[in-house]
Amino acid sequence: MKYLLLNRHASSLSAGFKMSDHDRELAQIGFKECELMGKKIRQKEISFDLMLSSSAIRAYVTCQLMASEINYPIDKIQVCSNIYGANKDLLKSIIKNTSDHVDSLAVYGHNPAFHLLAEELYNENICQFPPCSMFYVSFDVVNWINCFEGNRKFIFFHFPTI
User: Which residues constitute the domain of residue 75?
Assistant: First the structure.
């Protein structure tokens, strides 16, 4: 059995004149969203073998804050620059190439890929995938390479309401 959490980055600042999209930081409300959503993960007693983050600052900081809420070592977070700007197919490829030693994977990144992949896995329309949304699913497979072809079970979809 493999478990996947898709976690969109928390609310961020708008890109300024001299700031690239990649370098956008979290807004104050984003920190509150992370605290709220991190508590939800902790209350559900979910842990991860691997936390994988986009290289974008807003996604990486979201990942760090969530990791601290669940006592995941921050120095064990892996950054994958390909998540930033990934389309749904590239995101699926990144997930499928995860080591099979990892049974529980959390991925931190961006829309529209996260929203589109969540809809595909849920098999229904999801009206919105707001900042700090979490989509959790299990796959009845041994290898990540087969996760999108095997049986899967939707576990939850949460987003912060602040």
Answer: 2-158
